Amino acid sequence: MNIKTLKGKILLGFAVMILILAGVVGWSIYNFETLSNAINDILVENYRSIKASDSMVESIERQDSALLLLLRSTEEQGQEIFRRNEKEFYTWLARAEDNITIEGEGAILEKINEKYFEFVSNFDQFYNAEEDQRWQIYNQQLLPSFNEIKNDIRELREINRQAMVDAQGSANSRANQAIIYTIGLALLVTAFSLIFAFYLTKQILRPIKELEKGIKEVAARNFQRKVEVASEDEIGVLADEFNEMISKLKEYEKLNVKKLLMEKEKSEAVVNNLSSPLIVTDKDHKIVLINETAKELFSLREDVLGTHFLEVIKAEEIFEYIKNPEAKEEKTFLLKKNDKKRHYRISTKQVIDEDEEYQFTVTLLEDITRLKEIDNMKSEFVSTVSHEFRTPLTSMNMGLSMVINEDTGELNEEQKELLEAAYEDVERLTELVNDLLDLSKIESGKIEMEFDKVDVNDIIEKTLNPFHKQAEEKEIELKFKQSEDNVFAYADPSKISWVISNLVGNALRYADEGKIEVDAEIKGRRVLVSVADNGPGIPKEYQSKIFEKFVRAGSDKEEKSGTGLGLAIAKEIITAHNGRIWVESEEGEGSTFSFYIPRYGYQEENNE
Amino acid sequence: MSKILVVDDEKNIRLVVGKSLEKAGYAVDYAVDGVEAVDKANNISPDLILLDLRLPKMNGFLVLEALKSDAATEEIPVIILSALSEEDDVQKAISSGAEDFLVKPISQSDLLAAVEESIMEEGTGQEEIEGEDNNEK
């Protein structure tokens, strides 16, 4: 079969069907035709023979009658009838002879012909004989002839009738046969059609199945399998195109995989060469990536990917930090590495994809031991230097004050003014040294916090006492709002008092008039203390920095006294309380310094 | 006249503290290190000792211990005058028997107030005896 297109295949299928159908129809027509011919034979041929037989009998009987007439000597009439019927007889006989259709019919007709000739010859004898002899001739010759002829004719008729019956039977059997044949053929054709249709469908579907398999493989990202379709029809073309597509996909995939592998290797190289331990966990806190440094730190040898963080890394504190990605304040941990304690600063980063299907937490532990050491060295240095300052400051202070107090003799105005300026700066230097020492003590954790249940309202009231006079002098309204009662915090009262005093002192120092409002409120688990003034405010660029050491806002630098350490110390104190201190300020409008510390009864989580 | 022993290795401190005290009417003697301090305390029996903590030869704490463990000197009140201001140091000094702890730098008035308080506390009795002594002289 060299039909290539699917259309051709289907058309061929139809053509075969039509051909078979035509065959069946032809066969049926042929059968009908045969049947009809058989009927024709019966009706025409045999009927003719029978009619001839009947007519011959009639003629011969009339001749017999004519003979009887002649026996009664009605000469002319008898003669005339006889001859007329003789003619008639021969006519029919001739017809019968023209219509020989059955075996044996010819022989019978010949016999009739002979006998009839004899009969007619005998008639001549009869006609020429005398009257008395006529009877004898009639009885002895004509009558037996007549009967024999009649019998023969009957036989002729009979065989024709028999032929008709036979023909009918044959027609019937033919018809039956035709029905059987037709049914058989129809069945055969149906079966053949079914087989052919099945075959054709299979022929068409097989490549489609192949194609389907191939598509499924591709869907499963297997680009290795080619679709084998030998046919050259539309599906074959489709399969070729499909194979082409697969090979392109394969190439593309290869390229992509290569790229991905490169990227992976790159990032792995980066991660593994990171000097800081790095751990990536998924949302079930299972480790998905860990670098060599981290393995070394936690002494991990075996493959730990896929295991839960806590299962392999026994560091609850770090885990807690990873577990709560919100509210991140900088935290450091002390971990042992090679039997040496080292400080690590932890930082985590959540990685969430667009579909939020995966969620990773990248945890980086930064070894800040060196920084800590430097920081400690710095603190120690500051502390030492400050201590060393103290002794000379003492002699300067006391020496100057003795001279200024004129214990050593009178001074003129000029001398006094100069020495007083010197004394003032000695005092400033003393304050600075003291603040520096305080700060370094708090930073190094040398100052112990004495936490207790404290009434914040009480602290504020006591702290504000010494400021009222100063405020009055500057015509500033210093007000404690006390908007809530029973504000109990878990804090070190003297340190909190120091912070409030520092904030109020700052407000008083910078404001020339207006008011300062202090308040304490309970905010959930915390106590919020605020010191609000309507002084000059702090420029935006300084707001984030004023809690750093030696930072003073803007114009403040030259004029106002102060060490620039107060807020740094305040921040250290509040941080040591696990609190937070911040400022909100609008230049020209005023500033509000606020801090919160744990409310009493809610400190468990935050402290200890 | 009450006698005060100023113990400090810093010459300038000895000078200003000594002058301040003298101006306030006290008799002043000096020691420059711990060993000398203990010697002088025994020899001159001062009414008050102003003691620095960071001293050569023998530090202030050891001096304090030596004084308080010797019956001859244990009654002499000691005021620490030091640049050290750590809680631990203060606690240690007080528990070792120091009367007061003054942190450098200190103003003249604060120093005198502390000294006066300490001398007064020692009781008027001693003053009277000394007074008698003076009269005798």
UniProtKB/TrEMBL annotation, chain A:
Keyword hit for Disulfide bond: no
One GO cellular component term noted in the UniProt record for this chain: membrane
Cellular location(s): Membrane
Sections of the chain in a coiled coil: 412-439
Keyword Amino-acid biosynthesis among UniProt keywords: no
All residue ranges annotated as the HAMP domain in the record: 202-254
Enzymatic reactions: ATP + protein L-histidine = ADP + protein N-phospho-L-histidine
Keywords per UniProt: ATP-binding, Coiled coil, Kinase, Membrane, Nucleotide-binding, Phosphoprotein, Transferase, Transmembrane, Transmembrane helix, Two-component regulatory system
Membrane topology value: Multi-pass membrane protein
Transmembrane portions of the chain: 178-200
EC number: 2.7.13.3
Name of the protein: histidine kinase
TrEMBL record, chain B:
Gene3D superfamilies with a match to the protein in the record: 3.40.50.2300
Protein purpose: May play the central regulatory role in sporulation. It may be an element of the effector pathway responsible for the activation of sporulation genes in response to nutritional stress. Spo0A may act in concert with spo0H (a sigma factor) to control the expression of some genes that are critical to the sporulation process.
Keyword Transmembrane helix: no
Entries under PANTHER family matching the protein: REGULATOR OF RPOS, TWO-COMPONENT RESPONSE REGULATOR ORR33
GO molecular function: phosphorelay response regulator activity; transcription cis-regulatory region binding
Example of a GO cellular component annotation carried by this entry: cytosol
Name of the protein in question: Stage 0 sporulation protein A homolog
UniProt keyword terms in alphabetical order: DNA-binding, Phosphoprotein, Transcription, Transcription regulation, Two-component regulatory system
Stretches assigned to the Response regulatory domain: 3-119
Domain of life: Bacteria
Modified residues (4-aspartylphosphate): D52
